[in-house]
Each structure stands twice: as structure tokens, then as C-alpha cells.
Amino acid sequence: MLPETIEWIGDVPLLKLLDQRKIPFSVEFRECRTYEETADAIEDMTVRGAPAIGVVAAYGIVLAAREDMMKIDDAFLRLSATRPTAVNLFWSLERMRSVYKNSMGAHDICAILESEAEKIKEEDIEINRRIGKNGAALLPDKAAVITHCNAGALATAGYGTALGVFRAARRSGKELKIFADETRPRFQGGRLTAFELCEDGFDVTVICDSMAPFLMSREKIDAVITGADRIALNGDTANKIGTYGLAVAAYRHSIPFYIAAPLSTIDFNCPDGTMIPIEERNHSEVRRIGNELIVHEAAKVWNPAFDVTPAELIMAIITEDGIFAPAEIKKLKI
Description:
Four Helix Bundle (Hemerythrin (Met), subunit A), globular, 7-stranded mixed sheet, Rossmann fold, alpha/beta, 10 helices
């Protein structure tokens, strides 16, 4: 059974996070008692995945309010600076900011903010279940699928987006064979997706990122399904680095490529993928595997955390409100 990714203990107060840097070697938890500790946990990827980041940031605001209401503006600034690409972070913070502004002067403002953070968490789980049910209908009774990075219960408040589709498909009686890209440079597919799917009893095979096109040429693959960190108005989608190449390979082999993501991942202020900010992470993630240096120190390293998949390579975007062609995204403004 999978451990809970995010646990709020309100009477302390304490935000308890599953430390995803330690999986699959150990299951450990990190305790955040301040918004600064929460921001650090987002930045160093103790917690990762766009929906999970949004939920954790909401609780970060609650921690700031419980500590000192004078620090809440600083908390909004600090948390918004943690990860630039995942739009759920900013969606969640804006939702919390709206509640904060509308509740100023209320004697129970901390309780109001805490209630809103709890709603964001609970809604995320329900949304993921609806995404899963909608996406499951796209898969045949026996399906071989490829996924990239980790878009499961570990990346959300629970259940998952892309992996939620797999869970719902199996629940409906479908038989799945899942191939999980290892996902360089931090191996979220090999470490997290494989762990999550094995714990839940799925048939999962880990492949190196560069193996996917050859696999498509040798074995019938019914679909590629990934999550997303930001979806532009025209349907261009940012996801973990390597997703674009996977979509190109799927197009070459006439395999449908799907994005599974909540409506909150759509950035209605972003016209297309060229405007999506792409986070660049520390060079050491590429230079080293663990503590072992594998790249010559004199060599330059480029380490974008995400890439952008053009809308024309995406068959459909699976949301909690239905399945939409990328061109229909602009009609969904909420």
C-alpha cells in the first residue's frame, strides 16, 4: 500500500511530506513547521508533481498564518518563487490569496485558510479520479502503454493523473502492460513510477528514455499517456524533459499521445508553448548519479527540467470535465 504523500496535522501545526528523494530505497517523511521549510521542500523536490506542489503551497500559507499573520505576504512571495513551470503552484496560491483578502479582519482567518487548503487537497483527489475514469475509456481491454516521469499518487494529493487513468482502467477490468521511461536526469520514472505501480500490483517494465522509439517499432503500443505541468491556450504542453521526444516518436509510429491533467494546469494567460517559463536546474543532476561523477568537470551541462510538446503532436487532453482536442482548450476557461 502506498504511503500518504501529504499529511496535514492541524493541531501542531505540521505538514508531513513523503520524502520522494529517498524512494524506492526507504520510506521517510519530512516535517515542515514553517512556510520557509515548505518552500525548501518544494525546491529540493522532497515533494514534486504539479498538483502536489499546489496542495503543499496552500498548506505553506496556512503555516505562515498560524506562525505570524505579518509574514503571510512574504510567504506568498517565497512560495511563488520555488518552481517556475508548474502552473498549479500559482493557481493554488492565487486561490489562497483570494480567500485571505476576502477574510481580512475575520477573527478566525487561520481556520478559514486551513479549510481552503483542505478543500484544495480533497478536490485534487476527486478530480484525479474523474480524470482516470475519463481516460480509461480510451484504452482497449488489453493495452500496452508508455508513460514518462511520475504522474501518479506521489505527484498529487492521491490517485494520480496519468497513473490515475491506469488505475481506473484496471478497476474497470482492463488488462494493462505499462512501460515507464526511467526519466533522466532524476529518474522519477525508474524510482517513483515503478515503485508506485509495483506497490499496487501493476505489470510495469522500466525502460531508458532513449529506448521508447525502438520499443514502439517492435511491440504494439496502444497509447502514450503523460501528465503535464502547464498547458498553454493553444494546447502546447510543458512536461518533464523527454516528453517532447516521446511525442515525436509516438507520432512517427501512429500511436495516440495523450495528456492527463486537471483544468487547473491550463494557463489561460499563456498563448502558446514559447511563453511557458522553463526551469533550469543544477548541473550536478546531470554530472552525477548519486555521489558519483560521470561527466568530465570541464564539460558544459544544460539541464532544463521540462520541455514543450506542440499541440499538433497531442491527440487529446484528458481532464476531469472530459476529453478535449488541444484546439478546444481555449474554450474551457474557468
